[in-house]
Amino acid sequence: MPQALQVTTTTANKSDAERIARALVENRLAACVQISGPITSVYRWQDTVETASEWLCTIKTIDTNYPQVESTIRQLHTYDEPEIIALPIVAGSATYLEWLRTESGFKE
Questions:
Q1: 84 vs 20, 30, 74, 95, 98, CA distance in Å?
Q2: Are the beta carbons of 93 and 10 closer than 8 angstroms?
Q3: Taking the mean position of all CA atoms in its chain, how far away is CA 4?
Q4: pLDDT at residue 19 is higher than 90
Q5: What single-letter DSSP state applies at residue 2?
Q6: Range 74-81 average pLDDT
Q7: Quick check: 77 and 18 in contact, CB under 8 A?
Q8: What does the alpha-carbon distance between residue 32 and residue 19 come to, in Å, rounded to a whole number?
Q9: Most exposed: 47, 73, 94, 106, by fewest CB within 10 Å?
Q10: What are the residue boundaries of the structural domains of the chain, listed by start?
């Protein structure tokens, strides 16, 4: 059975976040994408400390979809190097995790 994942990425604006979220869910690469923001990010880029307002996408998917999730984010993202981080979901409601796997395209 595939491992449930939570993938995060940030975008420069809400419309970019919504475009990425819709593509992932419509293509059954993710069961759900939650968009939060704006958030404040402080980071180092090209040897300069930057501060930016961003939108956070929290993507619920499965490990077998990860390569396509990353590829889709990279295709649609406007950043040179977008944040794309995946963490395993180690525990959760059994019925929610079943829904997540099903809506992410897993068929037993």
A1: 12, 14, 9, 27, 24
A2: no
A3: 13
A4: yes
A5: P
A6: 96
A7: no
A8: 13
A9: 47
A10: 4-103
Rounded to a whole number of angstroms, the distance between the first and last alpha carbons of the chain is: 8
Burial 87-108 (b: 16+ CB within 10 A, else e): eeeeeeeeeebeebbebbbbee
Q: Label residue 47 by pLDDT band (50, 70, 90).
A: very high
Residue type, 82: P
CA 96 to chain centre: 18
Q: Where residue 50 falls among pLDDT bands split at 50, 70, 90?
A: very high
pLDDT tens-digit map of 33-46: 999 999 999 999 99
Q: Output the six-digit token pair for 43.
A: 């980071």
DSSP code of 28? T
**Tokens describing residue 62:** 């499965």
Cα–Cα distance, 50 to 36 (Å, whole number)? 20
> What is the third-level CATH fold of 4-103?
Alpha-Beta Plaits (3.30.70)
